[in-house]
Automatic annotation (TrEMBL):
Pfam family, one: Aminotran_5
Single annotated GO MF: alanine-glyoxylate transaminase activity
Record's protein name: Alanine-glyoxylate transaminase / serine-glyoxylate transaminase / serine-pyruvate transaminase
Top-level taxon of origin: Bacteria
Gene Ontology biological process terms, A to Z: glycine biosynthetic process, by transamination of glyoxylate
Residues holding substrate: R346
PROSITE patterns given in the database record: AA_TRANSFER_CLASS_5 (PS00595)
Ranges for domain Aminotransferase class V: 32-336
Gene3D superfamilies noted in UniProt: Aspartate Aminotransferase, domain 1, Type I PLP-dependent aspartate aminotransferase-like (Major domain)
N6-(pyridoxal phosphate)lysine sites (modified residues): K197
Organism: Amphritea atlantica
Organismal lineage: Bacteria, Pseudomonadati, Pseudomonadota, Gammaproteobacteria, Oceanospirillales
Length: 393
């Protein structure tokens, strides 16, 4: 007979999901009410307002999609791309490739701008792509590439698109709440994210926002949006302002309680303070890893503090290390993807998992495990190097 499932207690320091804060977990267990209940609608309005704060936007079409971050990505493309549209897609990792897939599935033409994995999107290549192709409708790129841990210059890329009269679609799944993001200030037209990274929330919700330029494009579509569920003209009837809402779908009530709580916590900490916290603990982790002789894939100026891709020491089975960390320390770190598989680990410092205790646990567990496996690394230096960062602040 099947019994209830009780998951083990893990420390999640991979590429996501991240540790969920106890306050957010507690919010999940609150009584379920109807998704058209006046109190739930009041909470929805608060979610929208706090999400506008997190994105730094005043756009009214800012809301959580009732599905994971991949659905947020699809919502942006399915509403803005029509058959025959030209879309410049920047790929410097896995998720730029998924953007290309979306463009092509909805009948658009993807004009690829490619950079090496671990490098940021090159603005000069984007300018060249615009110069070579007329009538480009959209520039799409990943702000924080989860597969490599590289941060691209979203402000500059958006300025290039604006100069050519193109919209922008920006993936901020790993940057929202962890790195500087200014949707209105940078002129981002359509943006999507996820709850399971720096917001310390369970996966399953995708925050999105469309500005007025994007809304006008949606309203003037020549073809019907191919997805009923993700059609923003329909969803806005439910997520629009005011107490009167049109039924669209049964919202994930308790998951939205959790998301509300995570946004409350972000407001309490302060957006800039959250960015600074991620940077601070990254600095300690960085110094500890480098003292151990472990190097980073991404150069310092472009490195995401919340997602650290680091090279596996020579002669070490990276999968065996991850297995031992999970078995011996209940600690999860991530593997490399694509061409980086077997070559790097991805160590996350996101949301509630971004703290001193986890940094020191990760360094100690990794040093002990690598030493036991015969890795040629300096020992006894990593913790001291990280502590020096903490003592200096």
């Amino acid at each position: 007979m099947t019994t209830s499932f009780y998951p083990p207690q893990r420390t999640l320091m991979g590429p996501g999901p991240s540790d969920v804060h106890p306050r957010v977990l507690a919010a999940l267990s609150r009584p379920t009410i109807g998704h058209l209940d006046p109190e739930f609608i009041r909470m929805m309005d608060e979610v929208k307002q706090m999400l506008q704060y997190a994105f730094k936007t005043e756009s009214p079409l800012t809301m959580p999609i009732s599905a994971p971050g991949s659905a947020g990505m699809e919502a942006c493309f399915v509403n803005l791309v029509e058959p025959g549209d030209k879309v410049i897609v920047c790929q410097n990792g896995v998720f730029g490739g998924r953007m290309k897939e979306n463009v092509e599935r909805f009948g658009g033409t993807a004009i690829m701008v490619e950079d090496d994995w671990g490098k940021p999107v090159d603005p000069a290549k984007v300018k060249a792509a615009f110069a070579a192709h007329s009538d480009v409708k959209i520039l799409a790129f990943v702000h924080a590439e989860t597969s490599t841990g590289v941060l691209s210059d979203a402000k500059t890329l958006c300025q290039i698109a604006q100069h050519h009269g193109a919209l922008t679609i920006v993936d901020t799944v790993t940057s929202l709440g962890g790195s500087e993001l200014d949707v209105d200030g940078w002129g981002v037209d359509a943006v999507y994210s996820g709850t399971q990274k720096c917001l310390s929330c369970p996966p399953g919700i995708s925050p999105i926002s469309f500005n007025q330029r994007a809304i006008e494009v949606i309203e003037k579509r020549q073809t019907k949006t191919p997805s009923w569920f993700l059609d923003q003209k329909l969803v806005m009837g439910y997520w629009g302002g005011g107490a009167k809402r049109a039924y669209h779908h049964t919202a994930p009530v308790n998951a939205l309680y959790a998301f509300h709580e995570s946004l409350v916590m972000l407001e309490e900490e302060g957006l800039e303070n959250a960015w600074a916290r991620h940077r601070h603990h990254h600095n300690a982790l960085r110094d500890g890893l480098e003292a151990m002789g472990i190097g980073f894939l991404v150069e310092e100026p472009y490195r995401l503090p919340q997602l650290n891709s680091v090279f596996v020491p020579e002669g070490i089975d990276e999968a065996e290390v991850r297995s031992r960390l999970l078995a011996d320390y209940s600690l999860e770190i991530g593997a490399g993807l694509g061409a980086l598989a077997g070559k790097v680990w991805r160590i996350g410092l996101m949301g509630a998992a971004c703290n001193k205790k986890n940094v020191l646990l990760c360094l100690s567990a990794l040093e002990n495990t690598l030493s036991a496996m015969g890795a040629d690394i300096p020992t006894g230096k990593a913790i001291a190097a990280a502590q020096a960062v903490y003592n200096a602040n």
